[in-house]
Amino acid sequence: MRLAALDLEATCLDPRRCRVVAAALVPIQGWEVDLSSALYAATSQRSRPDAALVHGIVSGEPHLPPNTDMRGILEAAARHTLVTFGPHDARFLAEEARRRGLHAASYCYIDVMAALLRNPARLAEARRRGRYSLEDAVEEMLGIRPPPRRLHDPLEDAVYTALLYLAARRRGLALPRRCTSPRSGLAGLLARLLGR
What we know:
Elements: E1 3-10, E2 20-29, E3 32-33, E4 39-42, H1 52-55, H2 70-78, E5 81-84, H3 88-99, E6 108-111, H4 112-116, H5 120-129, H6 134-142, H7 154-170, E7 177-179, H8 185-195
Parallel strand pairs: 1-5, 5-6
Antiparallel strand pairs: 1-2, 2-3, 2-4, 6-7
Helix pairs in contact: 6-7
C-alpha cells in the first residue's frame, strides 16, 4: 500500500461549494517521510480575499512556491492511500476532482485524528477543551510545540500528519482505511443520502 499524507486549505468549510486553494502530498515510505517527493500546489486568491479568514493564506505574503498544479495533486493522490488529520481533506479533494471532471474520483484515506480520539481520556480532554487540533496532537504525541503562526501551510501540516501517523503505528493504534464515494450518478446520490 502506497501512503502519502495530505493536507489542504480551502475557501470555506463546505466541500460542495468551496474551492481548494493549496494542497500538499507527502509520501510515507516504510518508517520515513519522503520530503524529496513531496508535491505542493496553490491557486491564486485574488478573487476571494475573504477566504483568508478560513485558510490563513493571504495574497502577497510569502509562502512556498508550488512545484505542481492542483491536477497533479489530484492524480498523485489517487495512486496513494491518503493519511489525513480528519476526513475533511479527503472529501474536499474528491469534490475538487469531481469539479475538474474526474467523475469517478474516489480517495481512500486513514484518519489519524479519529484513531487518536478512540482513546477515552484523550476524547474527554478534547471535549473539555472544545477542540482537538493538529497542534494539540503534535504536542501530545510528538512532544513538539508547533510555533504560533498566522498562515496555514499545507506542506508543514502534511509533514506533521505523516509524523503523527508513524507515531500512532509505533504505539500499535488501529488505523482503519476508509474511502470517499464518487459524487456523480446513482453512486453519488446514494452517498449523499447515506451521509445525511
